[in-house]
Design a protein that fits this description.
By secondary structure, the protein is α+β, with helices and mostly antiparallel strands. Strands 3-2-1-6-5-4 form a six-stranded antiparallel β-sheet. Strand 2 and strand 3 form a beta hairpin. The protein is globular. The model has no long low-confidence stretch (mean pLDDT about 90).
Length: about 160
């Protein structure tokens, strides 16, 4: 398993996240419709807006997710915030970054992941909008990526 990279400007990124008043104890009800739309649009059992803290990931909004205590080190979204575009993992079992990740090998049985980084107005990556399935998907198209990016724009707005 490869751990996600930490930004050189990590203190500024964490300060921006804190300035939004987002934390593990509070979901954002206004984002619930977006994750439900994403789940239905892509026929995925799980969709979430994950915010990446110092060492933890917290769910600002989600559908199809139970109680989760996720460390940044295993988070797919913590990898996605290091990307400029949509990060697509068609089959996590065959991806060098994730094949031995506990989310892949354990009860979550994560196979497919697509996530779009969410940026502050200053350009700091705070989290990601993601869709997840327990089945691989090798057919996630450029058009699908564009639709996911459009939903991510709704989240950041």
């Amino acid at each position: 398993m490869k751990c996600p990279a930490i930004f050189p400007n990590e203190p500024a990124r964490l300060a921006a996240l804190a300035n939004y008043g987002l934390d593990e104890q509070q979901t954002l009800q206004s984002l619930e419709p977006v994750v439900r739309i994403a789940s239905r649009m892509f026929d995925m059992p799980v969709s979430a807006v994950n915010m990446i803290g110092n060492d933890h990931v917290f769910f600002a909004a989600s559908t199809g997710v139970g109680e989760v205590d996720m460390g940044r080190d295993v988070s797919f979204c913590a990898h996605a915030i290091n990307q400029l575009e949509v990060m697509v993992v068609p089959d996590a079992r065959t991806d060098d970054r994730f094949h031995d990740n506990p989310l892949v090998t354990g009860a979550a049985n994560l196979r497919f992941y697509a996530g779009v980084p969410l940026h502050s107005p200053e350009g700091l990556a705070l989290g990601a909008l993601c869709i997840i399935d327990d089945k691989p998907h090798h057919d996630f198209s450029a058009e699908d990526q564009d639709r996911l990016k459009e939903l991510a724009k709704m989240v950041t707005d």
